[in-house]
Amino acid sequence: MSLKFGTKGDNLYNLSTILRYGKVLPMVHFTVAEWQNQSMRLLDMNSFDWLSTKLIVRSSGVDEDNLNQSLAGKFKSVTNVCGSKNVKAAIEDVITSFDDHKNALNQILVQPMIENVIASGVAFTRDPSTGGHYYVVNIDDISGRTDTVTSGSTNQLKTIFIDKFQPKPTDELVSSLIKLLKELEDLYQNDSLDVEFAANQDGQLILLQVRPLVLEQKQSFSLERQNQVLTEIQNKFCDFNQSHPHLFGKKTVFGVMPDWNPGEILG
Questions:
Q1: What is the mean pLDDT of residues 144-148?
Q2: Any idea what the CATH number is for the domain that residue 60 is in?
Q3: DSSP symbols for 53-99
């Protein structure tokens, strides 16, 4: 049976013991109601020594990510939190950031901060603009942070498109990421996913989030049909590139409206 999508925290918890090609960091997640009733005991009861290391406190709202909309980045996350007093304040800040902060079913997710980050980013298992069957990876391997891609705060972003019919990336990290994406597609029986990830110096690929990808283009076409069309385009391109007996040159130069009327340009 395929996994069902839940909150951010629920998804990571369900994957934490079954992922083969990625890792979920130690975590504790709880509802607003549980926090109001038990407060810091929720962290004290966990075997991980939560309060002696840097933590990230993340939102995990019931309306945050679903099949119809993504509210990625809408609610607050607090990074590099140390000590019980600061953890409590960060949790209260996240709760306040929810649109419906009185909803007792909203969740808070607490995890340790990732150390020695060498790359982070967002990967889609379909082209989010066209719905095309490509793995689209937006990756930052410069800053050493985990939030630059999602926040849009870097100009050193790399975007990689990988043919889903025969994915053969040469980069070791991207190759490992494709294995994780394929695994998630299989687990959820869903080929339209939005995945946040990071990698550290120990070679660990860390899953930060997985949610349904809300596509801008709703029409659907099969991977086989896409591959057929691309093959037809390739064949036509090769035909057009053949030398012509009455024209100079050995191949065709393609352009966008190279015969544009100068009058139209002036107009």
A1: 66
A2: 3.30.1490
A3: S-EEEEEE-TTSB-SS-B-TTTS--EEEE-SHHHHHHHHHHHHHHST
